[in-house]
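EI: anyone free to look at a 501-residue chain?
SC: sure, send it
EI:
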Amino acid sequence: MEGLTLALSSGLPVSRIVSVQVSLTTPAVIAQVVNTCMLLGTSPIIDPVQRRREYANILEVAAEFGIASEEYRAATLWFAQNPSPNQLFIGRWVKDASPGMIIGAPLGRGQQAMSQWTGLASPGFAVAIDGAAEQQVSGLSFAGMTNLNAVAAAITTAIGTGATMVWNQRLDRFELRSASTGPTSALSFLTAPATGADISQLLGMQAASSGAYAVPGMAPETALEAAVELDMMFSAQWYALVCPSADDEDHEELAAYVEAGDPPHYYGVTTAAAGSLVETTTDDIGYILSSYGYHKTAVQFSRTTGYAIMSYLARILTTRWAGSNTTITQKFKQQPGVVPENISTQQANVLDRKRVNVFTTYSNGARMVQEGRSSSGEFTDVIIGSDALALEIQGRLFNVLYQAPKVPQTDAGMQLLVNGAAAACSMYAANGHLASGTWNAMGFGNLSYGDPVPDGFYIYVPSMLTQDQAERQRRRAPLMQVAAKIAGAVHFADVLVWVNQ
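SC: here you go
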């Protein structure tokens, strides 16, 4: 009875009178950013299944690719820029046929301890190479070995000429690679041997090993095929694309693809072609891409620095779009690690007419990038800044729809979307990409040609009362139109001085 008395004395629940429920709002979705670059390389460090890895500094790139690789040399110019980027994606272009592989599961420190290996009695496994019957790899001995590199070497010797086992110390895993290449190159996951101790699990290479995967051999692919694959797998994770080993035909294909891309990307090309400096030459890549009028491609001329465009892109892709007065123009900027070109006025003018950028010197000792254009002639900061603005508007409107219980199909509901777009435009007025000015294009809504745009932007949405019924039944919002006035930048100045004696 005492226990019952205690239970009754706790009283009635307060929720009988005041009921409070907590509902967590849906987290906002982060929009694609435009401060990332995909360096498309040909080194076999990254397998075709994984396709890309992310790096935070040049040390990480050097540790994986080595200092003689094109990936390292290009990455040095990326990370050397000031301010320095904090991220670089490196993707794999299978330019040459690649081998079939088994990538082992990452091994913990305990699994890597040599005591796990040295005491095994006649260890082994079975594997099928290039579609042949399963091969028994047995009778191994790891006695006296002091590291897993020695274990991998012993396994390679036992397999023979068909495949090579390596220990990847950086990624804590074994990797088995077929000696053949191309589509017929293949390896099976490892299974238990007919006799002896089974090390297929210890190697992390069973079909059931968590983190292990098979890589089929591949025929050579084009640079465009590699870029499309990376776009399908990671499109919203990267913005700029550079492919150092591409030839002019590859550059044309990649530039065309990037121009049409959704989500947006931007392509960078370095050229050393002497014809870039000659006005009558029309087969250089700068002239060719400018003739296509591509907004989403920039070309830089450099006879000594084959990856100069990495520095060009790194400078603008470090822009902090959420800041105040943070936007830049590409002209006048520095390129640490790039040798400046010594060119004549005629050559500088030819490069500009071909929409080819160059890092050069002036007679006062200044070294700088000029002119900071895309192949279309539009300035790079305008194109990339406008992509960033569009993505910001897209992200904010998506989150309005995504997080609200519903956006009613009324003028008040449309105002929620307008507020989202206005917040994005206000951010880009604060960062200096947009500014007040005069509207010098066809008007809409209450905006006419020649009208001032005091905030740097104007947004118009027609009333819901005028919406077509069929559109309303599809639950589509009326068309929102945004007039955005680009702040631009001063690249040239004229001064007239009147002197009186």
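EI: The mean pLDDT is 95.
SC: 👍
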